[in-house]
Amino acid sequence: MKKSYLIFLFLLVFCSKPKQTINKEELTKELDSILLVDQKYRTQWKTIHDKFGPDSQEMKDLWAKQQTVDSSNLQRIIKIIEEVGGYPGKSLVGYSASETTFFVLQHAPDSIQEKYYELILEAGKNDELENRLVVMYQDRYLMHRGEPQIFGTQIRSEKKINPVTNVKFDSMYLWPIADTTRIDSVRMWNGLGPLEQYLNNFGLSRWK
């Protein structure tokens, strides 16, 4: 009887503990800062790549810095998801900061992306995250599983060697799309522009 009473008392105290209060303003500022750091070195990639080459020490150093940042950001984002009990979306932190969790998870290892796949989809359904970002996450998830993408958002790069100069270069290509018959309509309904316009940003074309 005494043991049952102690268990009941413990449950009563535990369940009556006040939930952790979320400071929305502070969380918004933190997420905005995390996003800035997430993009800090990525915005330098093209410049360093074009200036020093894909296999240069400068690119390796930049990538090492990015990996350190990504690891730290991921740990914090996972903690924030646990603290808020779900996706920190628009209703909690506003439009801009709601994108941070998406970007950090999208840059995470495949296993992490898979773990939070349903969380991202749910955030989209509840209008906590822009649909254009949700479909990007879906496409990347499918690509990493070796399956065709749906919305045509994923561009891959592979190293090739110029047979004349014997110099390595990065060759960009569009990851296969499951159905291209209505791709522009599908993209439009999900907040994306025409596929050809998107590909042109990478120097690609669906007609070549």
Question: Could you characterize what this model shows?
Answer:
With 208 residues, this protein is mainly alpha-helical. 60% of the residues lie in helices and 7% in strands. The protein is built from eleven helices and two strands. The protein has helices at residues 2-15, 24-40, 45-52, 57-84, 90-97, 100-106, 110-115, 117-125, 131-144, 183-189, 195-200; strands at residues 155-161, 168-174. It has a two-stranded antiparallel ribbon. Helix 2 packs parallel to helix 5, helix 3 runs antiparallel to helix 4 (57-84) and helix 8 runs antiparallel to helix 9. The longest helix is centred in the middle third of the chain and has 28 residues, at 57-84. It is globular, with a radius of gyration of 22 Å.
What is the distance, rounded to the nearest whole angstrom, between the alpha carbons of the first and last residues?
79 Å
Q: Specify the overall morphology.
A: globular
Number of strands: 2
List the helices and strands in order: HHHHHHHHHEEHH
Radius of gyration: 22 Å
Across the major sheet, the strand order is: 1-2
**Count of helical stretches:** 11
Strand residue content:
5-15%
What number is the mean pLDDT?
Answer: 89
Mind describing the biggest β-sheet?
Answer: 2 strands, antiparallel
Helix fraction, binned, reads 55-70%
SS-derived structural category: mainly alpha
